[in-house]
C-alpha cells in the first residue's frame, strides 16, 4: 500500500471489506480455508453450518475478492484469494493471541 491515504472510493471498498470480516461465521469460513482449499460440503460439515448458509457467505466473500473458487468436476473448492488475505488473517490472529497473553 502506498504512503498516501486512500481516496474515498478506495476507503469505501476497504470499509466494506472490514464489515464483511466482522461477521464471526465468515471469519470461521476464512480461517478454515486458510490451510487448504475446501468444498462447500466440507466447510458446512466441519463448521456445523448449513450448505446454503455457507454458500451465501462464500458468495459475499467471493464478491469482496477474499476467496476464489476452483471447479474440480462437480465441486467447487474455495481458497483464500491471495497471500495478502492469508497474511492478514494470520497476523490478526497472532495480534489477538498476544493481547490475550498480556491479560
UniProtKB/TrEMBL annotation:
Domain HTH arsR-type: 7-100
SMART domains in the cross-refs: HTH_ARSR
GO molecular function term, any single one: DNA-binding transcription factor activity
Keyword Methyltransferase set for record: no
Keywords: DNA-binding, Transcription, Transcription regulation
InterPro entries referenced in this protein's UniProt entry, alphabetically: ArsR-like_HTH, HTH_ArsR_DNA-bd_dom, Metal_resp_trans_reg, WH-like_DNA-bd_sf, WH_DNA-bd_sf
Keyword set includes Cell membrane: no
Protein name: Winged helix-turn-helix transcriptional regulator
Amino acid at each position: 500500500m502506498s504512503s498516501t491515504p486512500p481516496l474515498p472510493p478506495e476507503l469505501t471498498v476497504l470499509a466494506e471489506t472490514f464489515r464483511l470480516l466482522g461477521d464471526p461465521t465468515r471469519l470461521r469460513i476464512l480461517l478454515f480455508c486458510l490451510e487448504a482449499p475446501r468444498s462447500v460440503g466440507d466447510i458446512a460439515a466441519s463448521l456445523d453450518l448449513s450448505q446454503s448458509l455457507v454458500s451465501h457467505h462464500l458468495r459475499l466473500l467471493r464478491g469482496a475478492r477474499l476467496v476464489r473458487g476452483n471447479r474440480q468436476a462437480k465441486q467447487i473448492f474455495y481458497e483464500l484469494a491471495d497471500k495478502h488475505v492469508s497474511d492478514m488473517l494470520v497476523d490478526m490472529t497472532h495480534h489477538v493471541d498476544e493481547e490475550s497473553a498480556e491479560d
